[in-house]
């Protein structure tokens, strides 16, 4: 491994615990929009849900591996791309889908389904695709990542707050309606603030390293958005559903990615910079796409 792979970013245990809490609050806020009726409707017509799930957990990780083979970046950068691709949909995808004129119920349901699926599929995809590329396989062997521990992390950070939010929405609808908008706004402000603070603590490293990963992250994100659109088009879903699937595939939970990087990979520089840059760039690209689509009603 070279200098970039040996960089370890500054991220204290207290900061990691704070990020855990922030991510849990974000997932709780998203779940306040979920109702069993939404899931029942999608189960009756599951094609968009299946298409989105396949785009996110099958097509994107496989395409990321091909991108890594083609470009052959540094080991930690390659594993960072693979790890981000293995994460479920990101926290802002529901907001962006709404702005884009897509099917928000589908977006929220895809986020929930991907979050549950991530218990098994995130560690599986990291191990599978990371293990097929020799430089990243070397990192996986050194860190001895435990899929069970990854699954436990996902359960406590994502599944538990998701379930709690749904319970509140189901049993206390008046309370959920009252706190939904403030919670969602607050959670996003806190999340963005945390990312900014983490970047500030590592600004020197970030300036030195971002140039090495910026182009790859932009290309990777464009690939994710294009895959979502392509899979949705091939499956033949409606235009609104296609917008939802595109955004859901292109917006990854880089916050979870950062937690996994610091919990299991010691904050390995290339991986952390990839996830941090993803966290900023996918918000920019997703918002730009949402604004363009929002001007073109379905």
CATH class: Mainly Alpha
Overall radius of gyration = 18 Å
Question: Which strand-content bin applies to the residues?
Answer: under 5%
Order of helices and strands: HHHHHHHHHHHHHH
What distance lies between the first and last C-alpha atoms, to the nearest angstrom? 49 Å
Brief summary:
The protein has 298 residues and is mainly alpha-helical.
Question: What does this entry look like structurally?
Answer:
With 298 residues, the protein is mostly helical. The protein has a single domain, classed as Na+/H+ antiporter like fold (Up-down Bundle), CATH 1.20.1530. It is built from 14 helices and no strands. Helix 9 runs antiparallel to helix 10. It starts with a helix and ends with a helix. The model has no long low-confidence stretch (mean pLDDT 84).
Features:
single chain; 298 residues; mainly alpha; Na+/H+ antiporter like fold; 0% strand
Ordered list of secondary-structure elements with their pairings:
Blueprint: H1 3-6, H2 13-31, H3 36-44, H4 47-71, H5 75-86, H6 93-100, H7 104-132, H8 134-143, H9 147-171, H10 173-201, H11 203-235, H12 239-250, H13 254-264, H14 269-294
Helix pairs in contact: 2-9, 2-10, 2-13, 4-5, 4-7, 4-11, 4-12, 5-7, 5-14, 6-7, 6-12, 6-14, 7-8, 7-9, 7-12, 9-10, 11-12, 11-14, 13-14
């Amino acid at each position: 491994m070279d200098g970039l792979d040996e960089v370890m970013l500054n991220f204290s245990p207290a900061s990691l615990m704070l990020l855990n809490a922030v991510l849990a609050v974000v997932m709780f806020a998203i779940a306040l929009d979920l109702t069993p009726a939404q899931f029942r409707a999608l189960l009756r017509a599951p094609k968009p849900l299946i298409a989105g799930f396949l785009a996110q957990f099958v097509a994107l990780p496989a395409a990321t591996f091909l991108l890594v083979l083609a470009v052959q970046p540094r080991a930690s950068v390659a594993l960072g791309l693979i790890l981000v691709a293995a994460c479920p949909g990101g926290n802002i995808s529901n907001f962006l889908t709404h702005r884009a004129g897509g099917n928000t119920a589908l977006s929220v349901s895809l986020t929930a389904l991907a979050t549950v699926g991530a218990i098994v599929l995130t560690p599986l995809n990291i191990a599978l695709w990371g293990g097929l590329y020799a430089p990243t396989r070397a990192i996986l062997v050194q860190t001895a990542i435990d899929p069970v521990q990854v699954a436990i992390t996902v359960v406590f950070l994502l599944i538990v707050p998701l379930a709690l939010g749904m319970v509140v929405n189901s049993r206390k609808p008046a309370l959920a309606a009252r706190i939904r908008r403030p919670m969602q706004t607050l959670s996003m402000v806190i999340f963005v603030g945390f990312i900014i603070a983490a970047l500030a603590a590592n600004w020197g490293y970030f300036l030195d390293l971002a140039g090495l990963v910026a182009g790859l992250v932009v290309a990777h994100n464009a690939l994710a958005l294009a895959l979502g659109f392509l899979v949705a088009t091939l499956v033949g879903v409606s235009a609104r559903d296609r917008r939802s699937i595109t955004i859901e595939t292109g917006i990854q939970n880089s916050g979870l990615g950062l937690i996994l990087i610091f919990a299991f990979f010691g904050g390995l520089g290339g991986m952390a910079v990839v996830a941090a840059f993803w966290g900023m760039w996918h918000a920019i690209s997703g918002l730009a796409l949402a604004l363009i689509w929002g001007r073109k009603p379905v």
